[in-house]
């Protein structure tokens, strides 16, 4: 909305006030996101309390190395995003473009790993409502199905956020390439950074709660075929 | 005149309390590269620690330990990467209240679901015996 002459939109008095407004607005949006994912974590806790053994055994069917690798990819992409924002703040367009590209690269790697994980689960017939087939102890079947339902719901919603994030990243990259950002005005870059870090934050909780419940069980944990 | 007043008010109410006017108002403090890389190292160490502790059988402690590490990592990201350490109290209020409401959602839901076995021990609630039920 800022016109060509001033980085401050007409309804703001100063650059700082404009930035504070954007920051508060972004955090209000993130508050709704925290509660959205929070509701899913609540459901996870309730069903895990109901089916503790089934969740542990079903979780041992996860490939924690893939999840750990994705955790590292997201952390690295968060770090490159921090550098992208500070490049924008210092008016370094080249640095901004480079770090945005690196962020997008690691975000894409995350989704590629996720794709192979989902394919693997599909072949293992782990997908509730599609082809779920439990070969472990029969009394754990219901709880295991609930675990995989929550796994696909939570990681699916997270992956959707990653896709939206990559779309926004392309838009930020193009506008940065066009030179729309300056040390006075780079709010979209910084607000996108908040969103990207939030998506990283969700994964930090998803990883141990979904991938590592059965990590202390002996290999084959009981749920494998 | 009216504009000027509003402007000043906004400035006053949003000035961070713990930060006395240290130099220019534009002393915007994005984190230094060194700090960023230290946080990065802490996050990687936290991830390794998560996997390492999960591979041990800690009994009932496995999940609390994993959650404690995750909360530590999340705090680092919120404070440093999301700039809350350097933000104004108005922003911090939004951040804190969002987690406050998250805790309310957790607390009230868990207070119900995690205590249902206990309430089943109260005969007057669940017994099929009509005399017990009346008590």
How would you characterize the overall build of this protein?
The complex is a heterodimer of chains A (225) and B (135). By secondary structure, chain A is mostly helical. Chain A has one domain: Four Helix Bundle (Hemerythrin (Met), subunit A) (Up-down Bundle), CATH 1.20.120. Helices cover 72% and strands 0% of the residues of chain A. The N and C termini of chain A lie far apart (58 Å). The mean pLDDT of chain A is 93. The model of chain B is unreliable at 1-27 (pLDDT under 50). At the A-B interface, α1, α3 and α6 of A face α1, α2, α3 and α4 of B.
Identify the notable features of this structure and list them briefly.
heterodimer, A: 225 residues, mainly alpha, Four Helix Bundle (Hemerythrin (Met), subunit A), B: 135 residues, disordered N terminus
User: What share of residues are in beta strands of chain A?
Assistant: under 5%
Q: What series of H and E elements makes up the topology of chain B?
A: HHHHHHH
Averaged pLDDT of chain B: 80
Structural class of chain B: mainly alpha
Count of spatially separate domains of chain B:
2
Largest interface: A-B, 50 and 56 residues
Oligomer: heterodimer
- Could you give me the name of the CATH homologous superfamily of chain A? Cytochrome c oxidase, subunit III, four-helix bundle
Helix content range of the residues of chain A, please?
Answer: over 70%
What average pLDDT do the residues of chain A reach?
A: 93
The chain-level structural class of chain A is mainly alpha
Number of domains of chain A: 1
Tell me the radius of gyration of chain B. Answer: 25 Å
Low-confidence regions of chain B? 1-27
Q: Which sheet architecture does the biggest sheet of chain B show?
A: none
Specify the CATH architecture of chain A: Up-down Bundle
CATH fold topology of chain A: Four Helix Bundle (Hemerythrin (Met), subunit A)
List the helices and strands and how they pair.
The complex is a heterodimer of chains A (225) and B (135).
Chain A: H1 15-50, H2 52-59, H3 64-89, H4 93-123, H5 141-177, H6 187-211
Chain B: H1 2-14, H2 33-54, H3 62-81, H4 89-113, H5 116-120, H6 123-126, H7 130-134
């Amino acid at each position: 909305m800022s016109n060509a002459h001033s980085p401050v939109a007409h309804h703001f008095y100063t650059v700082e006030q404009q930035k504070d407004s954007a920051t508060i607005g972004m955090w209000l949006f993130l508050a709704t996101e925290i509660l959205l994912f929070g509701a899913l974590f609540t459901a996870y806790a309730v069903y895990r309390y109901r089916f503790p053994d089934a969740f542990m055994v079903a979780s041992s069917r996860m490939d924690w190395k893939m999840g750990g690798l994705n955790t590292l990819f997201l952390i690295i992409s968060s770090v490159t995003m921090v550098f992208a924002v500070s490049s924008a703040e210092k008016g370094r367009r080249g640095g901004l473009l480079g770090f945005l590209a690196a962020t997008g690269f690691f975000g894409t790697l995350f989704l590629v790993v996720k794709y192979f994980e989902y394919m693997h689960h599909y072949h293992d017939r782990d997908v509730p409502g599609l082809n779920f087939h439990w070969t472990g102890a029969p009394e754990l079947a219901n709880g295991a199905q609930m675990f995989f339902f929550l796994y696909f719901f939570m990681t699916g919603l997270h992956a959707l956020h990653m896709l939206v994030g990559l779309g926004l990243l392309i838009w930020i990259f193009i506008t940065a390439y066009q030179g729309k950002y300056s040390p006075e005005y780079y709010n979209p870059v910084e607000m996108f950074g908040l969103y990207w870090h939030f998506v990283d934050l969700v994964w930090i909780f998803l990883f141990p709660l979904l991938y590592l419940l059965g990590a202390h069980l002996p290999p084959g944990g009981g749920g494998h075929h | 005149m009216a504009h000027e007043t509003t402007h000043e008010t906004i400035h006053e109410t949003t000035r961070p309390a713990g930060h006395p006017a240290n130099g220019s108002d534009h002393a915007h403090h994005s984190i230094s590269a060194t700090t960023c890389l230290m946080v990065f190292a802490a996050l990687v160490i936290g991830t390794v620690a998560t996997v390492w502790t999960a591979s041990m059988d800690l009994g009932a402690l496995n999940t609390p330990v994993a959650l404690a590490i995750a909360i530590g990592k999340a705090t680092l990201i919120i404070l440093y990467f999301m700039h809350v350490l350097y933000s104004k109290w108005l922003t911090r209020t939004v951040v804190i209240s969002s987690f406050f409401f998250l805790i309310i959602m957790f607390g009230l839901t868990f207070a119900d679901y995690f205590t249902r076995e206990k309430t089943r021990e109260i005969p007057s609630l669940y017994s099929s015996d009509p005399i017990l039920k009346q008590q």
